[in-house]
Amino acid sequence: MGRYTVRRLLQFIPVLFGTMFLLHYLQVVSIQINGNPITALFGERQPPQATLDAITRSFGLDDPCLQQAGNPCLGMFVERLGNYAQGDFGVDFTLQPVTSLLAEALPITLRLTVIAIIFEAIVGIIAGVIAGIRKDRLADNFVRISTVLIISVPTFVLGVLVQILSGLYIGEWLEARGAPEWLLAVFSVTYQSEHPWASLIVPGIVLGAFSLGFVARLTRTSLIETLRADYVRTARAKGLPKSRVVGIHALRNSLIPVVTYIGLDIGFLMGGAIVTEGIFNIPGVGGLVFQSVLRGEIPVVIAVATLLTLVFLIASLVVDLFYAVLDPRIRYE
Asked: What is the distance between the alpha carbons of residues 119 and 137, in angstroms, rounded to a whole number?
């Protein structure tokens, strides 16, 4: 297990380097095609050329290779790697360090992602198990229909509907009855820094609702197939209680594809939180990336994309290692 983990960690290096070079090259090509992004900051009221040149130099965009179409600017890439190694991820157009921006936004998005993962994992697995053991019955039909509806509704539509329901109806009803502040924060229509966890519960549910449908359906399908296996029939023939047959013998193996989906979904949730954070006015990574794209602040986008790549790699490693916990037959050498 230890050697396998070390090998996987070493495989992170070429993936990260490849991702960073691809992002760097896309930035270079964008500048070579569209021109100096600094000029877009001033719109039609351009400053004197000397001022523009000074600002361009301060952001490291004065390299001659940026004027040569197709040039990958390897020197700039090596310089960027050196800065990254020192913990310097550059600055945005307001001269704020990218590390400071991430330090403020990342914890909020992580809390939102944790809530979404817990919600989709617990509710999705429970719903899938109920549907699996009651195949083609009322509970199964209800789970299948409800999950299709959840998957079919876009996140921005669900978010607005939930925001109206929680803020205008539930929130006002609780406030009229003197509910405590933390409970009012749960059903607030926006993020509240005084209640960093409570005010993210509803947005986290909205963010995890789409994945919940897949988790429930995947759990149901996997459990139904596992219940037909020979070792499950043997366990039933021995007279083991149904709860033990399902909970220990069948469910553990059924959760392997579910764990795979949930593990990889961590990165997708962090990267796909832009809509949810926008609806609930959450100052997280999604909002940071959205504003950075609008302003053309490429260093911020590259730093976030690199971070999400690392999250994907770590999540995939944790999922692979967790396989051995669910199925003792799986061993890594």
From this structure: 25
Residue 211, class by beta-carbon neighbours within 10 Å (0-12 exposed, 13-18 middle, 19+ buried)? buried
Structure tokens of 28? 């270079």
pLDDT digit string, tens, across residues 214-240: 999 999 999 999 988 888 888 888 888
User: Which residues, in sequence order, are bridge partners of residue 91?
Assistant: 97
- Percent share of the chain, pLDDT over 70: 98
Distances 257 to 47, 254, 260, 310 between C-alpha atoms, Å: 57, 7, 5, 22
Spell out the residues 6+ positions from residue 200 whose beta carbon is closer than 8 angstroms to its own: 108, 111, 112, 115, 191, 282
Q: What pLDDT is recorded for position 327?
A: 67
Token pair recorded at residue 129? 């198990």
Domains of the chain: 2-85 (no CATH), 98-326 (1.10.3720.10)
